[in-house]
Amino acid sequence: MFDYSDDEVSNKFITSRSRRKSGMKRRSKNRDDLREERTSAFGYANENFISDFGLVSGEAQPRELITEAYPPARIPDNHLNVIPLFKPRPLTLHTNRRGFPPQSNVVDHPDSFFKSIKVAVQMAQLFSLLPVTGYGGPNYKSVTFRWVHWKTIYFAIYLVGNTFILFCTALRSFSYGFTYDKSTGLVFFASSLMASLLLLQLATNWKKVNSDFAEMEFKLYKYNYPNGISKRFRIFTYVFMVLALVEHILSRVAQMQREVICSKDGSVISVVEAFIRNYYMEVFTYISFSLWIGIVLVILQFLCTFTWNFADLLLGLIGWTISSRFKLFNQALFKVQGQDRDSSFWKMTRMDYNELTDLTRKVDSYIQKLMLLSLGDNLYFICIQLLKGLNSNRKSGNIYETAYFLWSVGFLIIRTCFVTFTAAGIHDESKEAKTVLYSIPESSYCAETRRFLTQLSTNDVALTGCKFFSITRGLILTIAGTIVTYEVILVQFNTGDEDLPADGNNTYCMNF
């Protein structure tokens, strides 16, 4: 929180209407003379300071710089004194929530982006991702990224383990032959490694991301916040991760069921040992088997699986937040549909719209690589899981494999739809304002409305996949068509070989 000293207030900011009328050229430095003086300032207000090109009007009080503040479009007629501020000045706002709010009311709002996504970030940090500090603080300003911190070290350990497994998997794949079935492990560990690195890059910019959202929330405070979005995010995060955990457990149970034939005596320890030997044979081909090393590998794979799922969750929540903001803007605009409004109203409305489009572009620059990786991963694994299910799971008669197949494919489709629909919602909502502009009265039609309508019609506001494509509803149909096409091709070229022979012999089991 920033504030002025008494001298700075009297000399640089406060202008008394009564003293200006009496012709006095010097402002009083007496604190008592500041009481109830009506003041105005020419400047642009954001959460920390005021600079040029905006307007703030207020009432000065002892110990308070501003007690009432209004955005430029809502300056009362009786506030006539205007003074220029040639340099940015720190600003503390004390308001009754009309117009510009206090800084604390914005960045500490329970439905702000920082508060809404807090649970997801803290859950990610539990599993080594997004190693930022400061989420126990009151707002995003406490968030920092430090290379020398236990969270970053935790992430580095996971990264080294992931890289080691990927190296062993790639080495065995190219040494013993590369098939579509054996490619899943290589693609999985490679994608989780890339996702981890991209999330690390995002962590270094995480304070900027939160700052961009907070700046937008401050400037568009008059539209309020998406009602209850923080609660919805919290519930959805828990449900999403529970579904991911169920998928992971079903995968392990189905694999354990197959390892019974490889165990020595059918005991739990023997089955677990057989599972580790066979599931991580890429690693134990090059190092001696150890149960403790196997347990570490199980933990590392769990972290890789979490990374794979969390990337989709984070992208979906970010897209959800931005589309909700566009929706609030559209709701406010639809309230004036058909009404006669002057050019200043449409200018301010267009500027508010620009705040949202600028935010979308800034956020896209942070997450576009992760978006491309996420959609590519989901497309690949949906095709592979469908092919495996058609060729193996239904023939094996193993109820656990069948359950895993159905759950895995269903959850993959849900994840893909969640990411694409929330991101596509940004593009859809960004075009809704055209309906209002098409119905304005003839008397309201002006240069500002023409400019706004042209911007809405020609400006493509959307998240992208590294600028290769924009996330729109049309992309969803394209992805669905691609899955069907590739599935037909894979089925035609697949030999139908299964990992587990029908006669149940132990050629599947790894020999040591």
Outline:
The chain has helices at 6-13, 17-21, 103-107, 113-116, 118-126, 150-176, 183-204, 206-219, 229-259, 268-279, 281-284, 291-334, 343-396, 399-430, 433-438, 447-458, 473-493; strands spanning 37-45, 49-60, 89-90, 132-133, 144-145.
For the report, how would you describe the main beta sheet?
3 strands, antiparallel
Alpha carbon gap, first and last residue: 66 Å
The geometry reads as elongated
Radius of gyration: 29 Å
Q: Strands across the major sheet, in which order?
A: 1-2-3
Strand content: 5-15%
The percent of residues in helical segments reads 55-70%
Number of domains: 2
Chain-averaged pLDDT: 77
Class computed from helices, strands and strand pairing: mainly alpha
Low-confidence stretches: 1-106, 496-507
InterPro entries: Gustatory_rcpt (IPR009318)
Membrane topology: Multi-pass membrane protein
Organism: Menopon gallinae
Family: Belongs to the insect chemoreceptor superfamily. Gustatory receptor (GR) family. Gr5a subfamily.
Q: What this model shows, in words?
A:
This protein has 512 residues and is mainly alpha-helical. It has two domains: 95 residues, no CATH class; 381 residues, no CATH class. The protein has 17 helices and five strands. The protein has a three-stranded antiparallel sheet, with no helix packed on it. Strands 4-5 form a two-stranded antiparallel ribbon. Strand 1 and strand 2 form a beta hairpin. It starts with 5 loop residues before the first helix and ends in a 19-residue tail after the last helix. Keywords: Cell membrane, Membrane, Receptor, Transmembrane, Transmembrane helix. Belongs to the insect chemoreceptor superfamily. Gustatory receptor (GR) family. Gr5a subfamily. It holds the Pfam family Trehalose_recp. It is a multi-pass membrane protein.
